[in-house]
Amino acid sequence: MIYIHVPFCVRKCNYCAFNSAVGSDANKSLYVDALTREICQRGDSSQIETIYFGGGTPTTLTLAQLEKIFDAVTKSFHVEERAEVTIEANPSTVDEKFLRGLRSLGFNRLSLGVQSFDDALLKIIGRLHDSRTAIDAISTAEKFFDNVSIDLMYGLPTQTLDSLRCDVDRVKISGVQHVSIYGLEVEPGTKFFSDGVTVDENLCADMYEFITQTLPTVGFRRYEISNFAVAGFESRHNLGYWTGKKYFGFGAGAHGFDGKIRTSNICDTSAYVQKIFAGEDVSTVEEVVTRQAAMEEFCFLGLRTVDGISAQTFEKNFGAQIFDVFGSVIEKNFRLGLLSVDGDRIFLTQRGMALGNEVFADFLL
Ligand code: SF4
Questions:
Q1: Is the Cβ atom of 18 under 6 angstroms away from ligand 1?
Q2: Measured distance CA(275)–CA(318) in Å, rounded
Q3: Would you say residue 295 lies in a domain?
Q4: pLDDT value at position 45?
Q5: CATH number, domain at 185?
Q6: Which of 52, 57, 156, 270 is the most exposed place for a label (fewest CB within 10 A)?
Q7: 167 and 20 inside one domain
Q8: What distance in Å separates the CA atoms of residue 322 and residue 317, rounded to the nearest whole number?
Q9: Is residue 113 lining ligand 1, measured as CB closer than 6 Å?
């Protein structure tokens, strides 16, 4: 698996704490040079099943720049023929020509940051697009991609359940194959934080319940706490994270995991570029994953998925019985109605999905 970070956006959204900023053409060009250099330096014979261009807004780069990065990947790794290749896009940064170009470069999955179809809300959260632009971007994308995902947000200032219901109605007729949902979190460094925006936790919980219960009624199977897909269109890349696969991370702030060590690249874009050109290392070791940490991660990452975790796989991976290690945690959360056990599988109940973080915290020994 490969993750490629593109830290540029046209404008910063009011809620966004991601590693992204507005970038000049010159900065983008330097960054692409540095990024391709990093990819080529770190290439090896790994088989790559999924590639994910995230950000930021990767579609603020030109097709030629994206092609250059893509070429560096295919020359430096063995990319499987059936690899899932995703690019995140902002609806206002793609038109028919660009989408056709993305498809012909080899991208086969498009993730559109729609967030809402409500024009007033889109303005409040500082998005560039309006609902018409989002609807047009989806229908144009569907001419070239048979795997389109959209992001939806809930818990936004002034958002109501009625507005969310309209969003779900729009999703129903949109023809997309995948939906990711995000509850608003007001994080330091964002405009919302400095404006003192707060989240109504009760309304947010109601919205989460509404959306998680409604999307499955319109054809989207919930396969993870916040992700829904038409059967067969689950994100292979994200499933890889939740099932503990190894991944490379390229670009400023990107994270990597080789099965034992978690690394992260320097976040600052200019420092990243300078270091790459100076031939210096941009990545630092974040964590050497001990056996105990690996057991904990196996549980709390796997439990994010609807299928949950397998006791047999745990035993195969760690040579220990899951109930010997986490028996009391499993029993406690089972009693609270947050976990279910069915044969080999242990998984979150619907209530457990809503309170996932509390359950995961219990798995930290
Ligand atoms: S487009 Fe995405 S990454 Fe860029 S500022 Fe908005 S939310 Fe953040």
A1: yes
A2: 39
A3: yes
A4: 87
A5: 3.20.20.70
A6: 270
A7: yes
A8: 11
A9: yes
How many CB atoms sit inside 10 A of residue 40's CB?
13
How far from each other are the two terminal CA atoms of the chain, in whole angstroms?
29
Ligand 1 centroid – CA 150 distance (Å): 14
Whether residue 55 has its Cβ less than 6 Å from ligand 1? yes
User: Which residue's CA is the nearest one to ligand 1's atom 2?
Assistant: 56
Residues 47 and 139 in one domain: yes
For residue 16, which atom of ligand 1 is closest to its CA? 8
> Which ligand 1 atom lies nearest to the CA of residue 20?
3
Whether residues 191 and 332 share a domain: the answer is no
> For a substitution probing ligand 1, which of 10, 13, 129 has the most ligand atoms within 8 Å of its CB?
13
Q: Is the pLDDT of residue 365 over 90?
A: no
Residue 76 sits in the same domain as residue 179: yes
Is residue 272 one of the residues assigned to a domain?
no
Q: Token pair of 23, please?
A: 């970038």
Judgement on whether residues 317 and 199 belong to the same structural domain of the protein = no
d(CA 274, CA 277): 5
pLDDT in tens, 37-86: 999 999 998 999 999 999 999 999 999 999 999 999 999 999 999 999 99
160 is a domain residue: yes
CATH of the domain at 344: 1.10.10.920
- Answer yes or no: are the C-beta atoms of 178 and 230 closer than 8 Å: yes
Q: Which of 242, 274, 306 is the last residue of a domain?
A: 242
Mutate to test the pocket of ligand 1, among 6, 8, 11, 12 (most ligand atoms within 8 A of CB): 12
Ligand 1 near 149 CB (within 6 A): no
Q: What is the pTM of this model?
A: 0.95
Q: Which atom of ligand 1 is nearest to the CA of 11?
A: 5
Domains identified in the chain, total number: 2
User: Strands 227-229 and 178-183, how do they pair?
Assistant: antiparallel
Residue with CA closest to ligand 1 atom 5: 12
Q: Which domain holds residue 132?
A: 2-242
How is residue 349 written in tokens?
């109940």
Count other C-beta atoms under 10 Å from residue 178's C-beta.
Answer: 23
**Of all atoms in ligand 1, which is nearest to the CA of residue 56?**
3
In a domain, 182, yes or no: yes
Tens of pLDDT, residue by residue over 267-300, are 999 999 999 999 999 999 999 999 999 999 999 9
Q: Are residues 234 and 295 in the same domain?
A: no
